[in-house]
Amino acid sequence: MISFNESRYQWYQCNSEQASAQPGVKLTKFIRKKKKKTEKEITMGGSESTPQTKTPPAEFDKSWRETPWDKKELLEKELKELKLSDSKVKYIRILLAGEVGAGKSSFINSVNSVFQRRITTEALVDNAGASGISFTRTYSTYYIRNGQSVLPFVFNDIMGLESGESRGAHQEDIAKAVEGLLKEGHNFNPTASAKNDCKSETNLEDLTNCLVYVIAADKVSMMDDDVFRKMRYIRQKASSLGIPQAVIMTRVDEVCPLVKENLRHIYHSKKIKDKMQECSNSVGVPVSHIFPVKNYHEEIDTKNDMDVLILRALKHIVLTADDLVYRRKSGSEKC
């Protein structure tokens, strides 16, 4: 019995002999048939086909965090009419800490811009990317204006954190600021902690009610471990005092084209959620306390969607801080 391979060989030999008798005719047809068969095998997913990999979608099908885009006025009203849990406390004090150029001062200006309905520059800012050093050198308190009065929360801006022991804000200075011991107007010295600029005792107005880390979304992956070490040191200090913490994640438009095109895609973007998780892993703050925003930077007018993200983050921070005000009040009444 003739095997299949022998049969195929005889068929090929026969065709080859015929092709030799008629050069360039049947052999050419045979080669063309083989070529078509090979192409068909590749098309049909044969052994020579290249697997096609699908690019995963950049967005979730639905927003994973609800955002009241059409309720800016309500958010603004709630913050303006906020009544603190302790009548003896006039202001909630929010301390901002973060790497040089993360946008601490810009966030303060952005909050003020929302309530002023125009772009403001209460806290002076600089293009830190050009110099690589912190523009903020003095410990200052910033009030948020509400017409001729001010709102019941203030921000304290500090010198930016940098890698190395002799660069950026001294971590002990920030620890003293967390405790409310650092005097207004203290000049930061990267190589030496404050000695003469510390208060001997504090009152309710001096105490920090919330520590907020400001982290740039497009830089979190490149931040030096030494900066995170300083942040964790500050976090431990704040945690030991029962001070709540949150993260403002800035420059969201720089990491996601979808968000740059339309800010309302922010909680649809997988890239943004990944960056929020990265911030959480690096600093220790849960994702539920991380808020992506876009600071005012190149705009000359305020915008609804930017305002809503800022107000939503601010409302969470202020209410969380007021919970601490309540706990401190309850604790003092029991003593």
Describe the structure.
The chain is of the alpha/beta class and 335 residues long. 41% of the residues lie in helices and 12% in strands. It has one domain: Rossmann fold (3-Layer(aba) Sandwich). The chain has ten helices and six strands; from the N terminus they run αααβααββαβαβααβα. A six-stranded mixed beta sheet has the order 2-3-1-4-5-6, with helices on both faces. Helix 7 links the parallel strand 4 and strand 5. The longest helix has 31 residues. The protein is globular, with a radius of gyration of 31 Å. The termini are far apart. It comes from Cyprinus carpio (Common carp). One of its GO terms (biological process) is immune response. This is Interferon-induced protein 44-like.
Salient structural properties:
335 residues, alpha/beta, Rossmann fold, six-stranded mixed β-sheet, 10 helices, 41% helix, 12% strand, Interferon-induced protein 44-like, P-loop_NTPase
Helix content: 40-55%
CATH second-level architecture: 3-Layer(aba) Sandwich
Major beta sheet, strand line-up = 2-3-1-4-5-6
Succession of helices and strands:
HHHEHHEEHEHEHHEH
Structural class: alpha/beta
Shape: globular
Count of helical stretches: 10
From the structure provided, what is the oligomeric state, counting identical versus distinct chains? Answer: single chain
The average pLDDT is 83
Strand content: 5-15%
Number of domains: 1
Report the count of strand segments.
6
The stretches of 5 or more residues where confidence is low (pLDDT under 50) are 16-21, 23-31, 34-47
State the distance separating the first and last CA atoms.
106 Å
Major β-sheet profile: 6 strands, mixed
